[in-house]
Amino acid sequence: MPKSPGGALLQGFTIERDSSVPIYRQLDASLRRLILDGSLAPGQKLPSTRELAQELGISRITVKNVYEQIIAEGYAQAKTGAGTFVADGLDTEAFPQVRTPRRKDKPSGIEISTRARTIAASKSVARYGETAPFRPGVPALDQFPVKLWNKYLAEAMARDARRSLSYGQVNGNASLREAIARHLADARGMKVDAERVIITSGAQQAFVLIAFVLLNQGDTVWYENPGHIAGRDVMQIMGANVAPVPVDGEGLDLDHAMGRHPKPALIFTTPSHQQPLGTTMSLGRRLALLNYAQENNAWIIEDDYDSEFRYRGRPLPALSALDSARRVFYVGTFSKSMFAAMRLGYVVVPPEFTETFATARNLLGQNSSAVVEEAMARFMADGRFTEHIRKMRRLYRARRDVLFESLARDCGEFLEPERTDAGMHMVAWLKAGIDDQAAHDALLEAGIDSLPISVYCIEPLNRAALVLGFSGVDERIIPRLTKRLAAVLRDLTG
Ligand SMILES: Cc1ncc(COP(=O)(O)O)c(C=O)c1O
């Protein structure tokens, strides 16, 4: 029988006195780990409680309590008069699945699903945390009326607790759905029954829901190229064949898609403000697309992510406003018009899908918070949402102008900015020979963010560009940043 491990084994115990984890728990975890990873063999004698307590400088009672616990759970055995031993029958070698891997062990023979492999390959970028200036899609968060919003949140919490603190409604808060339907009528020319509005935790959950409900394995999805990254990846992950469709001056190139790709189950498009090129889909193309979808039994996702921000003329009505055949799933988000952390968006579904979507939303975890939904409903009903958008529109227009002029003045040698009449970002085409990923990486090192247009592409474009967000950058610092941007590109190309 192996002897007590004594001093050598004691090195396996690490007790951190500053830790918030109590010493009792630390010792207990160390012992279990050493037994499960085989460092302590079955039948091996453990140090006496006195020896271990002395060695670790902790109380003997603590060690005794831990020994009693591991004995009770079958990791160890007490033998009267002889001491405490690792349980005899505990052959962890025979059950590799319960062994704690040692650091040097390589994971062996783990098979992952096809879906897990597709997820691992996703290029969608983590959006967490503070971002550097010119990151696309970031609103002016420092201008958000936090105090006012807190008042609405507090009111939403203060309702009858039995209602407000329970699960929300399965398709989302009814007052919020009404408020959204009114907003869509006023701002997007859509006549929508609130029953058709399903609340989601952001546009992204709407894409997941749509793919979950509509797509069969191997279905073709026509997808704008370049196009919104995270939506595209969801379609791929759900097993769709995502077919890239180029975008011309009128929007998604329908003729190209019809000539090149199988008939789609679903078509993903951003007609109001193409992501990322900024094109507005022409009326002719809108009608042709709706007509095609109706005749070919295809569905359309209209992602209307930043249509609140149009700087010339009135916003064009949504594609959905023309959709008398009800082929369009209209997706909206509050991530741009309010702030992304609220995780609130919605999808307007064709009437025959309302119940299926509500059930699917429930099955996928009903992710948006019923409290935030209620606060947002009140914020909209009081006109606060419209007020905030109006303010932001003025601010973003000014920021767009400063960025365009500063880029044209400071960076003309390296890039050609494209003036945009809408949205929160602009495309700056790089002069021949400058790689957009290399430019992005070099800029990021200098504290300037962007997205290379290549990450939006399934098929590469024949030009490189950087997508630069202006909405979240104080206009007073933009000229300083564009000078730095020029210096970095000069360094990169020189
Ligand atoms: C094209 C597009 N659609 C939708 C979204 C919004 O996503 P979410 O509402 O999940 O934050 C974004 C955000 O980056 C986007 O760029």
Task: Present the secondary structure layout.
Elements: H1 6-10, H2 23-36, H3 49-56, H4 60-72, E1 76-79, E2 83-86, H5 114-120, H6 146-157, H7 161-164, H8 174-188, E3 197-200, H9 203-214, E4 220-225, H10 229-237, E5 241-248, E6 251-252, H11 254-260, E7 266-269, H12 283-295, E8 299-303, E9 328-333, E10 345-348, H13 354-363, H14 370-381, H15 384-410, E11 415-417, E12 425-430, H16 436-445, E13 451-452, E14 465-469, H17 478-493
Parallel strand pairs: 4-5, 4-7, 7-8, 8-9
Antiparallel strand pairs: 1-2, 3-10, 5-6, 9-10, 11-12, 12-14, 13-14
Pyridoxal-5'-phosphate (PLP) binds at residues 137, 202-204, 228, 270, 275, 303, 305, 333, 335, 340, 345.
* CATH homologous superfamily assignment of the largest domain: Type I PLP-dependent aspartate aminotransferase-like (Major domain)
Radius of gyration, in angstroms, nearest whole number: 29 Å
Q: What is the rounded distance between the termini?
A: 72 Å
Calculate the mean pLDDT score and round it: 92
Strand order of the largest sheet: 3-10-9-8-7-4-5-6
Could you tell me the strand content as a percent range?
Answer: 5-15%
- How many discrete structural domains? 3
Q: Provide the structure class.
A: alpha/beta
Give the CATH topology of the largest domain. Answer: Aspartate Aminotransferase, domain 2
**How many strands?**
14
| Continuous helix count | 17
Contiguous runs where pLDDT drops below 50 for at least 5 residues: none
User: Globular, elongated, flat, extended or rod-shaped: what is the shape?
Assistant: globular
Q: Main β-sheet, in a few words?
A: 8 strands, mixed
- Multimerization status: single chain
